[in-house]
Amino acid sequence: MNAAAPLLVIGYGNPGRQDDGLGPAFADALARLGLPGVQVDSDYQLNVEDAAAAAACERVLFVDADSAGPAPFSLQRLAPAPDGASFSTHSVRPEAVLALAKGLFGAEPEPWLLGIRGYQFNEFGEGLSAQAARNLAAALDWARDALPRRALAPIRASAADPAATSEEGDA
Question: pTM of the full predicted structure?
Answer without folding.
Answer: 0.85
